[in-house]
Amino acid sequence: MTFSNRAPAAWRRWLLGAVLSLAAAALAHGVSESDKGFLQGRNGVQILPFLYLGAKHMVTGYDHLLFLCGVIFFLYRLKDVGMYVTLFAVGHSTTLLMGVLNGWHINAYLVDAIIGLSIVYRAFDNLGGFRTVFGVQPNKKAAVLIFGFFHGLGLATKLQDFALSQDGLIPNMLAFNVGVEIGQLLALSTIQIAMRYWRSTASFARHAVKSNFALMTAGLVLAGFQFTGFLTK
C-alpha cells in the first residue's frame, strides 16, 4: 500500500469527528473507580477476580485494540497473526509484570503518548510510508515487540498508582497478566473474524488505505492529548 490514494474532503471531515469521539472514549480507558476500589481493598491471593480484571482491561483497551488492528490489518495467514500477536503479548506481559513487581514508574501521560504513537507507526507502516518517504523498511517484528513493552509499561504505571496489597501480589499479578492475554485472545478473535469477512468483499480494496489513515489519525489525536497532559500537569 502507498500514499497514492486520498480520501475526499467530506470523508476526512467525517473521519475527524469520529476520531475525536474515539479519542474521548479512549482517554477514559484505564481502571474504573469500582475496579480501583476492588484492587485497593483486597488482601491475599485473589486469582479469579484478578483474572477477570485483566481480561476486562484488554477487551475495553481501545489503545491496545487499535494497535493490534493495525498489526493484523494485512496479515492473511493465521501463522503470521499468531507470530505477531505472540510478540506483542511477550512484550506487554513482561513490562506489566516486571513493572509492578519492581516498582518501575514512568509518567503515565508520557507512556500513553508513546502508545498513541505506536498506532501511528503501525498505520504508517501499513501504508508503505517508511519505504515511500524514507526508503527504508524497519523490522516489523522488532517494532511490535518494542511497542508491546510500552503498552505493558503503561498499565504497570497505572496499577502502581493504587495501594496494592503486598500480600499475594505476585500470584495476583500473574493472574491479572493471564487475564490480559485471555482478553486479548477474545478481542483479537472477534477482530480477525470481522477482518476476514471484510477482506472477502470488494470494499476492502477500496477502503484499506482510508482505514489506515483513520488509524494513524486516531493515534495522533491520542498522542496529542497525552502530550498535552504531560506538559500541563
TrEMBL record:
Residues 1-28 form the signal peptide. InterPro entries: Put_HupE_UreJ. Keywords: Membrane, Signal, Transmembrane, Transmembrane helix. The chain crosses the membrane at residues 54-76, 83-100, 106-124, 144-163, 169-191, 212-231. This is HupE / UreJ protein. It comes from Duganella sacchari.
